């Protein structure tokens, strides 16, 4: 893998080894297909450039978030990496990474937030008002047609700028490396490529993300309905957690112990509420109100606000089809919470799911408190700050609640 830079633009070129194929597998086991072998990342004007501008471990980490799905046995970077990073490749993926010869990158002092503008990352930003935000913006690829023009990355970037915070926009066409299933991050971690490349210049020593209890501990939408203490993507001791830490940039999940309902409650009660946007298709007027994400998030917001849902989507629409089938569901903990708290749920696209789940306010009360192990795995420099916020705003789960989390999927 070769990085070149010109001004504020860094370009990455991949070359597959013999035996490696265009079809790859991401960390959460989904198949992806490579479309092209190059991508670029545009950093803000005045960012460091040139061969010595970014520590080789950071360049290797950034490249790996793009190339990991297609790498089988070894990865060769265009400059030496540290022995510590090479060891993390070996222990996490069984990958022979090199050449080795650079000194370890010392960790910085500042925590950056990888900021999408959705409720989860907005909650993190509201909890950490002094932390800088780095926002990834998709731009078109010069060699790949953009057939997804309804994805309004321009709107999301504008909303991020309107927060009034220290926001750094980073543009990239890396999502167009994917031919199948659609443009998207080769690995989920590629959204942090701007944070990684800027870490040395900005003294970043950690990167915070908005992954909540469902994504971190309950399996998320892809590990359906399963307790995942060893989540390979987001646990601190997993392969990605160890690799980021080896590059002096550990992953930090401030809301990893609370549910999406609680991140939404916190974000919509903060000064960032007018900039919160989870819909990828909406324009400057607001969310589209027609996509599956709008339907799912409206269920959660209605539950948090204890009001009927406001949606024109009906049960016969394709975006509502999954909720007409028996569980398990991706994000099931929030479907249970929504069905338990939305008045008139029987008149919504989730009526059938509510009949299957039979959730009640009592059976979902644990989703309003914080899971203690999530705070314990936050790196020490930021742990006490997050712990105090969790205690003040949500309270911690008792033994019964903890058992609900740790038996998730086994009931």
Describe this structure in words.
The protein folds into two domains: 2-252, no CATH class; 260-357, no CATH class. Helices cover 32% and strands 16% of the residues. It has helices at 56-67, 83-93, 119-127, 153-161, 193-202, 213-216, 239-246, 260-268, 292-305, 332-341, 351-357, 372-376, 380-393, 399-406; strands at 2-6, 9-13, 23-25, 31-34, 38-42, 74-82, 96-102, 110-114, 133-138, 167-172, 178-180, 204-208, 251-252. The strands form three sheets. The chain has an eight-stranded mixed sheet with strand order 1-2-5-10-9-8-12-13, sandwiched between helices. A three-stranded antiparallel sheet has the order 3-4-11, with no helix packed on it. Strands 6-7 form a two-stranded parallel sheet.
Task: Please summarize what this structure is.
Pfam families: DUF6395. This protein is an alpha/beta fold and 411 residues long. The protein is 32% helix and 16% strand.
Number of strands: 13
Question: What order do the SSEs take from the amino end to the carboxyl end, as H and E?
Answer: EEEEEHEHEEHEHEEHEHHEHHHHHHH
User: What is the global morphology?
Assistant: globular
Number of helices: 14
Structural class: alpha/beta
Largest sheet: 8 strands, mixed
How many independent structural domains?
2
Gyration radius, rounded: 21 Å
Query: Which ranges are low-confidence, i.e. pLDDT below 50, for 5 or more consecutive residues?
Result: none
Strand order of the largest sheet: 1-2-5-10-9-8-12-13
| Average predicted local confidence, pLDDT | 95
How far is the first residue's CA from the last residue's CA? 46 Å
Strand portion: 15-25%
What percentage of residues falls in helices of 4 or more residues? 25-40%
Pfam families: DUF6395
InterPro entries: DUF6395 (IPR045654)
């Amino acid at each position: 893998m070769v990085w070149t830079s010109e001004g504020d633009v860094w370009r990455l070129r991949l070359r597959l080894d013999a035996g490696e194929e265009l079809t790859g597998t991401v960390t959460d086991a989904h198949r992806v297909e490579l479309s092209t072998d190059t991508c670029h990342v545009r950093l803000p004007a005045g960012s460091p450039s040139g061969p010595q501008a970014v520590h080789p471990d950071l360049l290797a980490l950034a490249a790996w978030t793009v190339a990991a799905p297609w790498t089988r046995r070894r990865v060769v970077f265009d400059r030496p990496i540290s022995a510590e990073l090479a060891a993390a490749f070996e222990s996490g993926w069984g990958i022979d990474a090199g050449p080795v010869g650079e000194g370890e990158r010392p960790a910085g002092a500042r925590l950056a937030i990888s900021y999408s503008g959705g409720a989860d990352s907005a909650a993190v930003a509201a909890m950490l008002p002094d932390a800088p935000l780095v926002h990834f913006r998709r731009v078109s690829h010069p060699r790949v047609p953009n057939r997804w023009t309804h994805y309004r990355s321009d709107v999301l970037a504008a909303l991020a700028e309107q927060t009034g915070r220290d926001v750094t926009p980073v543009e990239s066409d890396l999502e167009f490396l994917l031919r199948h299933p659609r443009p998207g991050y080769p690995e989920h971690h590629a959204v942090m490529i701007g944070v990684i490349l800027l870490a040395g210049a900005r003294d970043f020593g950690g990167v915070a993300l908005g992954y909540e209890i469902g994504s971190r501990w309950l399996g998320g939408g892809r590990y359906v309905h399963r307790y995942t203490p060893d989540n390979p993507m987001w646990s601190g001791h997993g392969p990605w957690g160890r690799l980021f830490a080896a590059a002096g940039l550990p992953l930090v999940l401030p809301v990893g112990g609370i549910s999406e309902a609680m991140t939404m409650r916190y974000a919509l009660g903060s000064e960032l509420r007018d900039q919160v946007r989870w819909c990828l298709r909406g324009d400057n007027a607001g969310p589209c109100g027609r996509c599956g994400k709008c339907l799912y998030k409206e269920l959660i917001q209605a539950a948090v606000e204890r009001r009927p849902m406001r949606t024109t989507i009906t049960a016969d629409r394709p975006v509502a089809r999954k909720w007409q089938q028996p569980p398990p569901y991706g994000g099931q903990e929030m479907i249970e919470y929504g069905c338990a708290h939305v008045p008139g749920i029987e008149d919504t696209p989730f009526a059938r799911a509510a009949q299957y789940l039979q959730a009640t306010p009592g059976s979902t009360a644990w989703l309003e408190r914080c899971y203690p192990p999530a705070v314990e795995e936050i790196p020490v420099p930021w742990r006490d700050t997050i712990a105090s916020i969790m205690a003040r705003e949500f309270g911690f789960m008792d033994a019964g609640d903890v058992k609900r989390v740790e038996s998730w999927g086994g009931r």
